[in-house]
Structures are given as C-alpha cells and as structure tokens.
C-alpha cells in the first residue's frame, strides 16, 4: 500500500514521535508499505510522521544511476538515535517529500553513529558518512518534528528545484 505523504504546514510533521515498543507483523507491514511509498515517490528516505504515523521509525534506500555514487542498501531503523556526530561539518543540498519541489542547503556533521533496533527488536549500530549520514540525520530529525528548512542559515529558505 502506498501512503499519502503529509506536507508542510501540517502540524503532524511537528510532533515528537513515540518509541516503538511492539515488534510484530503490523510493524513489518508498515515498513514494507513505507518502502513502497518511498519508491513510488522517488525519495531516498522516509520517516513515519511523513505518512501520518507518530512512531519512531525511518526507512532509507538509494540506488544511484551513476556508478561512482555509493549504493545505500534498504535500511529500516526503529527507535534510531544519533550517539555520536563528527566535529567536521559539511554543507549539502537537501530535499524532502514533505516540502515538494524545494531544496535547501544545510550544514551538518559529516559522519554520525546511530543506535537503533531492527524489525525484530534486535539492537543495531550504524556508522555512516557522506550521503548516508546526511539522510540518516534528516530522517531522524523528522521524529522530533524538525525539518531541514529549520536548519538552514539565518535569512535563507528553501527554493524551487532547478530542472
Ligand atoms: Ni524529509
């Protein structure tokens, strides 16, 4: 099932989501539907509040067309939290399915470590850099009601994506 995507300024995007405590078949189905939705909308990541679910759950996946870009395999993270961020920060352009047609430059740590649980509740730890680290930070922010546009330099705001 493909979910509808909630867009700004829907207040559901601004909620702090609740921890997932039950690892059951319903959770597996939600993750499968979020993956299908992410593919249908051509996103690189999707967080549960973007589809109206107030739960701490994100999915990511990136299969680049250019072979010089790194593949990010499908990853579903339950209750993810950033446990370490590198002091070195880089600027990158970000987009978001909840701010359709827009992009904006955001400075964030280059590398992060994330602790989370998988679909069975097992603990997992991820070390990420580059685009993977960027998507992780963006999606985890959604769980606390934070959008990339909140993090742009003062006086700047998202602008239409150039074709
Ligand atoms: Ni987003």
Gyration radius over CA: 15 Å
N- to C-terminal distance: 29 Å
Contiguous runs where pLDDT drops below 50 for at least 5 residues? none
The number of domains is 1
- What is the CATH architecture descriptor? Alpha-Beta Complex
Mean of all residue-level pLDDT scores:
96
Strand content: 25-35%
User: Which ions, cofactors or small ligands are bound in this entry?
Assistant: nickel (II) ion
CATH superfamily: Peptide deformylase
Write a concise synopsis of the structure shown:
The protein has 163 residues and is an alpha+beta fold. A 5-stranded antiparallel sheet has the order 1-2-3-6-7, sandwiched between helices. The chain binds nickel (II) ion.
